Amino acid sequence: PPHSLEPISLSSLSLDAQALHNQFDELAAFSDSPAPSVTRVLYTEKDVLARRYVKNLMGIAGLSVREDAIGNIFGRWDGDGPELAAVATGSHIDAIPYSGKYDGVVGVLGAIEAIHVLKRSGFKPRRPLEVILFTSEEPTRFGMSCLGSRLLAGSENLANALKTTTDSKNISFLDAARSAGYAKDDDISSVFLKKGAYSAFVELHIEQGPILEDEGISVGIVTAIAAPASLKVEFEGNGGHAGAVLMPNRNDAGLAAAELALAVEKHVLESGSIDTVGTVGILELHPGAINSIPSKSHIEIDTRDIDEERRNHVIEKIHQSAIKITKTRGVKLSKFSIVNQDPPALSSEAVINAVETATRELNLTSKLMISRAYHDSLFMARLSPMGMIFIPCYKGYSHKPEEFASVEDIANGVKVLALTLAKLSLQ
Ligand code: GLV
Ligand code: MN
Ligand code: MN
Ligand code: MN
C-alpha cells in the first residue's frame, strides 16, 4: 500500500537541534536594534535579508519557493497528490521594536525543520505540504496587523486601504513593497486565495504566556484565538505657552489623551472578566516641547477579549468617554477610528485531534488552551480548518528582549508539528 496507517515510524523522527539553534541566532542578527533585542520591520533592509535567509533554507529543504505580490513566501513539497489541496503551516518573522527572537520565528524555522524531519524519516506526503512565511503579522509599520494572512483570506477592505496607506515617514505601502521587490503591479488582490485552497493550516508558536512553563507541560493545543481590536484617537486643543496660559484657560490635548488612557483601563476592568484586556501602547503629543501645552495628541489603543460582544462593548464605552472628554476639557475629537475589530477564531476539531494524537504518540504532555495573542491563524481560519501548537516560553515573556524558548521545547514542538503535518497530509 502507498501509505501505511502509521504515517511514519516515530523512532525515526530525528531533529537537528543544533542546526536549528544556530538558525535562531543567525536570523536574529538581521535586526535594527542591538542583541539580545530584535527589531525587524516590514520591507526594511533587515527584513529583506531575513527573507532571503529563509528562502535559502526552504531551498535547502527541497521546497519549491514562490512569493506573492506582497511577499508572502510559500515553500512547497508536492506529495503523491499534487492536485490535492495542500496542508499548510507557517508564521511570521517580522519583529516589533525591541522584541525577541522567538515570536513567529519558531513557526517558520520550526516548520522548515519539520519538513527535514519528515524527509529524513522517509515519509512521502499524499497532500502537498506548504510552509508559509506571512508578511507583517505585526502592525508596526503600517498600523494594521496580519497583512499577509488577511489578504490571503481575501480582505477587499485591506486591499483597498493599502492603496493609500503610508507609514510614519509618509512612505506609501506600495512604494515600500516595491523597494523590497514586491508589488510589481498595483493590484494586490492577486494575493487572495479561495476558501478551500488548503485542507488544513497549523501554526507552531511560543505560548507568550506562563501557563505551560508553570504547569510543566510540553505542548499547548489552541482551541480558540481571542478577538483583537485596535483604535486610533486624536484630540486637538489650542496649545499655548506653558507659563503664560493660566489653568482655567487651557484645553490641553495631552491631558485629554491621558484621561482617555485611564478610561480605557477603567472600562476594561468594568467588564468584570479577567479575559478583557486593554493597552495604550502609543501616546504622542504635539509639539512635544516641555514649555508648550500639547495642542494635539494621538493615542493608539489595543483591546481584546475572548468574548467579541464584551470587547465591542468596551470599544463603545471608550468612544463615549472620548466624547465626554471633549466636553469637559474643551478639546476637539479630531479622530476616532477603529483600525480593526476582528472576531475570534475557533480551531477545527480535526486539526485539534491530529495535534492531540501526535502529542500522545510522542509521549508528550499537553493541555487545551486559548490564545490571547493573535496570529496569522486567526485569518487562515477563514480559508481552511485551523489549529495551533504552543510551546512553553521563559516566564511567558514575549514582545521584549528577554523572550526565550529552550531548544528542547522547540524540538518537541517541531516533532509534534512534523507528525501532525504527516497525519493531515494523509487525510
Ligand atoms: C501579535 O503579536 C499580538 O499582538 O498578539
Ligand atoms: Mn508578536
Ligand atoms: Mn507571533
Ligand atoms: Mn502575534
Tell me about the largest β-sheet. 9 strands, mixed
Helical residue percent? 25-40%
So what's the overall shape?
elongated
What small ligands are held by the chains?
A: glyoxylic acid, manganese (II) ion
Count the beta strands: 15
Class by alpha and beta content: alpha/beta
Q: Low-confidence parts lasting 5 or more residues at pLDDT below 50?
A: none
**Into which percentage range does the β-strand content fall?**
15-25%
- Rounded to the nearest angstrom, the distance between the terminal CA atoms is 15 Å
Q: Order of SSEs, N→C?
A: HEHEEEEHEHHHEHEEHEEHEEHEHEH
Oligomer: single chain
The overall average pLDDT, rounded, is 96
Number of H- or I-type helical stretches: 12
- Tell me the radius of gyration: 23 Å
Enzyme class: hydrolase
Subunit structure: Homodimer.
Catalytic activity: (S)-ureidoglycolate + H2O + 2 H(+) = glyoxylate + 2 NH4(+) + CO2
Protein name: Ureidoglycolate hydrolase
